[in-house]
């Protein structure tokens, strides 16, 4: 009888353990939902709060700035260097990892010390909803994670329906000016622009964030230029900035459509490049900017020649990794 009870107890313990599969296809087992969580990217921090598990967060990156509560969480490093000793001292039950943004050597040190890593890697618009569901389930907030995912999907469905027949606008997203870099069609930012009818002139390039030449931009002649930065206190999501320092490179290219018309915009980087729950706000920002362009285009048609859809932008000889 005693042996039977022991076996039943063992079976119950096994049944209680939950196995979660992360975006690296790794199976990670937890007997109970993690109560001490560290995030290694600001978008992962936003996910934790979005599913209602913010109270479990004990450490995060220097760049985690949203929501406001995240600013008060202990800092454990940045993309250049993680404070491995500090992370171990915080005794996390799990560390949420952004694979393409964190250093492999330091992650190896954490794993060697017995820390459980869980990889989250949303790349496209729809991946964000999946991440909400996955993180909610992992942290014991499955219901709220599922609800947030459903609301996120519905918000994007509504936006897609609204802009289904919008006139296309050719766009260029400038990541950096020195070196000149952009994003291809596989990046979430490109998805957000496309939902509103923005046609990324560099969508077909192979690298996710390729280095390009000035000549390739001139050849593509996009109607609209975008770049990203952070605004003070999050006061605005976007601004029209034809005279902005980020676009100084293009001031002498007066024949470019975007330069002629002043269709050069700066948008909040946290909204449009951070693969997280606020991506819907980033999409709405792009839609608002492109709506402004379409209104003006109706009144200024014929002043400049729009780019041909058959023009193929050229890539610089060196690409970013």
From TrEMBL:
Residues 1-17 form the signal peptide. GO terms for biological process: cellular response to iron ion. Residues 297-321 are annotated as: Disordered. The keyword Signal applies. Residues 36-297 form the Fe/B12 periplasmic-binding domain. PROSITE patterns: FE_B12_PBP (PS50983). The keyword Chloroplast does not apply. Keywords: Signal. It comes from the Bacteria. InterPro entries: ABC_Transporter_SBP, ABC_transptr_periplasmic_BD, Vit_B12_bind_prot. It holds the Pfam family Peripla_BP_2. SUPFAM superfamilies: Helical backbone' metal receptor. This is Cobalamin-binding protein. The lineage of its organism: Bacteria, Pseudomonadati, Pseudomonadota, Betaproteobacteria, Burkholderiales.
């Amino acid at each position: 009888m005693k042996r039977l009870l022991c076996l039943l107890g063992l079976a119950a313990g096994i049944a209680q353990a939950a196995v979660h599969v992360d975006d690296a296809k790794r199976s990670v087992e937890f007997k109970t939902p993690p109560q001490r969580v560290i995030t290694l990217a600001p978008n992962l921090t936003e996910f934790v709060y979005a599913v209602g598990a913010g109270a479990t967060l004990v450490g995060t990156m220097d760049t985690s700035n949203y929501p406001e509560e995240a600013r008060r969480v202990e800092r454990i490093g940045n993309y250049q260097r993680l404070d491995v000793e500090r992370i171990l001292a915080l005794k996390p039950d799990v560390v949420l990892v952004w694979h393409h943004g964190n250093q492999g050597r330091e992650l190896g040190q954490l794993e060697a010390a017995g820390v459980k890593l869980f990889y989250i890697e949303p790349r496209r618009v729809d991946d964000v909803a999946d991440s909400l569901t996955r993180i909610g389930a992992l942290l014991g907030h499955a219901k709220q994670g599922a609800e947030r995912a459903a609301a996120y999907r519905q918000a994007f469905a509504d936006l897609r329906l609204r802009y289904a027949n919008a006139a296309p606008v050719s766009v260029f997203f400038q990541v950096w000016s020195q070196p000149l870099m952009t994003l291809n069609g596989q990046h979430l930012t490109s998805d957000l622009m496309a939902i509103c009818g923005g046609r990324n002139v560099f969508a077909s390039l192979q690298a996710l964030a390729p280095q390009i030449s000035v000549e390739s931009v001139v050849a593509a002649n996009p109607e609209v230029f975008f770049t990203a930065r952070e605004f003070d206190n999050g006061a605005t999501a976007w601004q029209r900035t034809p005279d902005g320092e980020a676009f100084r490179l293009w001031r002498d290219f007066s024949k470019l459509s975007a330069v002629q018309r002043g269709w050069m915009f700066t948008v909040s980087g946290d909204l449009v490049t951070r693969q997280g729950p606020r991506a819907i706000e980033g999409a709405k920002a792009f839609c608002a900017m492109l709506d402004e362009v379409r209104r003006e285009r109706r009144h200024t048609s014929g002043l400049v020649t729009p780019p041909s859809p058959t023009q193929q932008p050229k890539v610089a000889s060196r690409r970013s990794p």
